[in-house]
Design brief:
By secondary structure, the protein is an all-alpha fold. The chain has 2 domains: about 1-35; about 35-65 and about 70-240, no CATH class. The chain is about 75% helix and about 0% strand. It has helices at about 5-25, 35-50, 55-65, 75-95, 100-105, 110-120, 125-170, 175-230, 235-245, 265-270; strands at about 1-5, 70. α3 crosses α7 (about 125-170). It is elongated, with a radius of gyration of 26 Å. The model is unreliable at about 250-270 (pLDDT under 50).
């Protein structure tokens, strides 16, 4: 289950609101609406994205973008508590008792790992399968980020192309004063559109997707280590402390002097 990330929504609304307010206060906002400029900047940059990526990758990114506006409801500390409960149940009733719990898990990665553990697969095989899933997930996330970064880099360039087009049209019509206005609008507004697209939409979205990817990878790494530890019969308290090594040193859930780099202790104690 995911919940809305209000920071992303507030940031976009605040950015649009502030710029819209500035345009209204500065005069007639209709002056900043120009269809030819949109065609050059939005249409041209999107066409270049299609050249740079496959159609399937571009289609997939529109499903990925929702991750910038939502966040997973499970926090790392909640995951640690859940693993503590699963570990205690496994010690009392055996690994097979976790099969019902696997069916109730919403995260497909988590559910798959628990099910493989219940099916008595070898720890190294479970680790290999889950690490492969994580690698492919990271690759998918990188493609999504790359598309928005590329689009963000291309938009100002097409804004500049529109500016050059407008200047050429303006210079060609110096003998017709009535045609200078539309040509100058095309020359200036395309640069404005390109900057807005790049620096308020696409580059920030790429950054947020990168942050989401890091958070999801950390949760999946915690799930992987927790699953392997339960299967190996690690004491629930030790398991919880092992998973807490993923939390930042300044986390409210970590003791003040426990400055362990996320995951470092896990790999030192790797089975």
């Amino acid at each position: 289950m995911r919940r809305i990330d209000f920071m992303t929504v507030v940031g976009i609304i605040a950015g649009i609101g502030l710029m819209g307010g500035a345009l209204v206060m500065g005069g007639n906002p209709k002056l900043f609406w120009n269809v030819p400029s949109l065609m050059v900047t939005v249409g041209g940059s999107f066409a270049a994205v299609l050249i740079n990526f496959s159609l399937q990758e571009v289609k997939n990114v529109f499903g990925t973008v929702k991750q910038a506006f939502t966040t997973k409801s499970m926090e790392p500390e909640e995951l640690i508590e859940l693993f503590g409960e699963l570990a205690r149940k496994a010690r009392r009733e055996g690994l097979l008792a976790l099969e019902d719990d696997a069916g109730r898990l919403e995260d497909p990665f988590f559910r798959k790992g628990i099910q493989m553990m219940v099916d008595a697969m070898e720890p190294e095989m479970i680790r290999g399968i889950l690490e492969t899933d994580m690698a492919y997930m990271a690759r998918r996330h990188e493609i999504g980020q790359s598309i928005f970064k590329t689009w963000g880099n291309l938009a100002p360039a097409f804004g500049l192309i529109g500016t050059l087009m407008g200047l050429v049209q303006m210079l060609a019509r110096l003998d017709n004063p009535e045609a200078l206005g539309p040509s100058m609008a095309l020359a200036l507004i395309t640069t404005f559109y390109g900057a807005i697209m790049a620096y308020m939409i696409f580059i920030p979205l790429a950054g947020k997707l990168g942050l989401r990817s890091e958070q999801e990878m950390m949760l999946h790494q915690m799930m992987l280590e927790g699953i392997i530890s339960i299967q190996s019969g690690v004491n629930p308290r030790i398991l919880e402390e092992r998973l807490r090594s993923f939390l930042p040193a300044n986390s409210a859930h970590r003791p003040a002097g426990e400055a362990v780099v996320a995951g470092e202790e896990v790999f030192r104690q790797r089975l």
